[in-house]
Amino acid sequence: PKAGETSSLGKRVNRIDGVEKASGRAKYTYDIQLPKQLIARALGCPHAHCKIVSIDTSAAEKVPGVVHVYIFPHAKPGSEIEWQGELLVAVAAESEGAAVEGLSKLKIQYEKLDVFVDDANLAAAQAAKRASKGGGKEQTEREPGDDDDEKEFVNTEFARLFKESKHIVEGFYGIDAITHCCLEPHGSTVTWNGDKLLAYLSTQNVSGTDEGFADGLKIAADDVEVRCEHIGGGFGSKFAADYWGLAAAQISKATGRPVKLMLDRDQELKLGGNRPSAYLKVKLGADADGVIKVWDSEHWTTGGAGGGGVTHNGVIPYVFEPKNYRRSQINIKTNLGPQRAWRAPNHPQACAITHTAIDDLAARMGADSMEIFLRNLGTDAARRIGGAKPSVYKAEIELAAKLMDWKAKWHPHGKGTAKGSIVDGLGMAIHTWGGGANDSNCNLKIYPDGGVETFCGTQDLGVGTRTAIALVLAETLGIPYTGIKVNIGSSKLPVSGPAGGSTTIGGVSESHRRAATDALAKINDLVAKKLGVAADTLVAANGRIGVKGQPDKSLSWKEACNLIGMRPLEVTGSFKRGTPSPLSNATVGGVQMAHVLVDKDTGVVKIHKFVAVQDMGLVVARKQAESQIYGAIIMGIAYSLFEQRIADSASGAFLNSELRDYKLARLGDIGEVVVEIYEPESERSRGVIGLGEPPVISPGAAISNAVANALGVRVPVLPLTPQRVLEAVQKAGRA
Question: What one-character DSSP code corresponds to residue 417?
């Protein structure tokens, strides 16, 4: 803010909890240490598919320091375990060492069963389904009307449409499963006070997980409090109490002592959930201008042992909506850990396996990829896409192209100037997301001395929620945001929605703007009476309330609050998801472009420059918003080039479930990143819209397209590892 100004909304400001985090004073779940606390560790199943024959805990119970041994309900003798890592037994002890030694003394007999983990191989999955009692099960989803009576007509019609197409592309595209690897593992520290449970839980759902504990433990939700002041990452994986959280509570109840049970690092990758894989075979037809007229695809996907995967409904083909399309989906069950939401569920996969086909259309035509994307946008009046308006995408593409210097750098696929074995290329993709406001309630207190404090049962996923709340209140009340105390992170505070779907910023902005507006109206009435003016002439700004342009008819914020009386002014603010509101909105679009360098001798891909242009309605906290986009791009580079879950096809073992083996991007892998928030008045006036998820969607497709532009050949499956790059180059005879 400029000198004398208090408004900081939409500006680059520091977090109000930044010093607390940077100094180490911020307490995460892992930091909680309670008197007489026990440490629990759990044993995961070593096999991907087996039956439990017997469990002998007697030796573990005799280990010095071991206090309690707990067998999980799903691990009783005779139980079938369907994936490696499923927790079987927990040991609680006086020290971590004693707990680990206790686990080593467990004697468990297993009966191994057939395993299937090769989700990329559709033929193998179908064969496994026929041959196995366990893995490889599939479920086919078809479009409405795709029954036997109509098949012949549909086939004839599609044959006609493809015959009329000027350009046809047939391709295979895929993206491997990746696993959650939050910096702070899943888990909790729990303690009982009589029949009441206090759970320090690493969660992105403070207001909702009390019910998860209550339901699992058969107690009243009012008897549970969940606290989470800070969290070391969630990304969609931490919405539940989880069965290991319930186990910690049961062990604590049985022993009468607090219990901490946090997952080990390899357990975090095995149990914390994964983003499903997706693979697609497609045939598309376009007219002479490259406008897609017909789409025919089959895709298969797996969410692991629980089935599921990437649904085709609404996301395949991604964003672009050709008039004629046919698609089928096969969900494959594998002996791998089950899926969980992962930052923009379904969208990164859908973008990666469909926008690559659009880029290949441009390559087939010898056309500029950006031009083909633009031609398929249509107009606002006759749109051919979902998500943001075509005019928004067009403006964002033009802005991104300028930031990338696309026209100067672009070359036809495989036709760039090589520098030794190094070739470069450009690629792009677009994306959309909803981001509408979630439910939120708050209790705002304004004290007679001018202090402002709010209470809200939301959580800060690390994105700066406290700061955003303070900025909204400060903007409304006309005071500095740094003087506002924000209380969040407890299920006993007014209920607010979980931090998922990019819905938090809209929800907390709605509830706090409403509360602050109502509170200010009450204070204005008092000030108006004091000054002898009409309340509707008063303005709150720069730490004062008064008639604009008349300094003698104003009071300082503190003087105005003195009029409240002895007790604080308390006001509640509420918002219900789906309620029409001028304060928030939904649906955003974004464009991303990648400039890569590829070494044809080694297969190594390097990011030279990455540009992201994103709209998000009204910006509340600009520095934090930009940080979200930077973080999303880093995640996108990781899943595009490095990150993948690797399973042994014979045993089903998750081979790289430690961070030393589960490769992520490092500082030198990122390259230059340019972030631009698209905020013309047309978007700003729409109100607050969530940002967390959209910018993580496009990197996979943009980077894959850039590599294809560099090489002149498609590397079909993400991540684009050196081995896959070399195989694609050699297959095309371009080694």
Answer: P
- Closest to 177 (Cα-Cα) out of 49, 45, 83: 83
φ and ψ at residue 56, rounded to 5 degrees: -115, 115
Alpha-carbon distance values, 426 to 265, 412, 603, 631 (Å): 37, 10, 17, 21
pLDDT tens, residue by residue, 82-99: 999 999 999 999 999 999
What is the SS3 assignment for 307?
coil
Compute the distance between CA of residue 219 and CA of residue 7 in angstroms, rounded to an integer.
Answer: 46
Global pTM value: 0.96
Give CA–CA dist 16/454, Å, rounded: 14
Query: Quick one: which of 236, 228, 163 has its CA closest to 199?
Result: 228
Q: How far apart are the C-alpha atoms of 255 and 39, rounded to whole Å? A: 12
> For residue 356, which of 604, 600, 170, 177 has the smallest C-alpha distance?
170
Give the Cα separation of 414 and 423 in Å (integer): 8
- In whole angstroms, give the CA distance from residue 204 to residue 232: 10
Amino acid type, 216: G
Secondary structure letter of residue 677 according to DSSP: E
Distance CA(417)–CA(407), nearest Å, equals 15
Distance CA 296, CA 327 (A): 6
Looking at 232-361, which runs of residues are DSSP E strands? 259-262, 274-275, 277-286, 292-304, 324-333
Gap between the Cα atoms of 403 and 398, Å rounded: 9
Q: What is the largest CA-CA distance in the chain?
A: 87
Residue type, 448: P
Cα–Cα nearest to 644, from 630, 632, 631, 657? 657
Summarised one tens digit per residue, pLDDT across range 510-555 is 999 999 999 999 999 999 999 999 999 999 999 999 999 999 999 9
Cα(421)–Cα(178) distance, integer angstroms: 30
Shortest CA distance to 605 belongs to which of 459, 515, 447, 723? 723
Beta bridge partners of 309: none
CB 615 within 8 A of CB 677: yes
Distances (CA, A) of 554 to 302, 517, 551: 64, 19, 6
d(CA 538, CA 81): 67
